[in-house]
Structure prediction request, 135 residues.
Amino acid sequence: MAVIVLGCASNGQIRDFTYDPVTEETFPEVQKAELFKNGVDRPHQIIGQVSIRGELGEDTDSLESRLLKASSKIGAEGVIVVETGRLVSEVGRAGVRHDQFGGAATDYRYFPPPVPIQEHSIYIIGVAIRFLVNQ
Prediction:
């Protein structure tokens, strides 16, 4: 199966959204998808796994809205939330490297001492579903 990753907001795509289908079947876009945090009691078919990652400072409501918008584009009528959380990743260190001995020495010191640079973001992982008719 293919994993579809949408990383930008241009051309109607939702940034940081991924879709991993469990079927070869494709589905038409729906007008609106629903979010289910405690399961769903209506008969449904799983069409794949979806996930989305938020930006620094983005709130949960905004992230859920982006997830539902992207899911509706792949034909999901609903998303059952499987996992939510916060990511903290160290992406580097801030500081200036100075050559201790002059020339091409291999010993360096940071001046001032390095400060970790971290990215914080939230994420949602869910199961994309379509409702079964007449079941």
User: Anything to note?
Assistant: The chain has one domain: 4-89+120-131. Confidence is low (pLDDT under 50) at residues 1-12, 96-101. Helices lie at 60-73. The chain is about 10% helix and 45% strand.
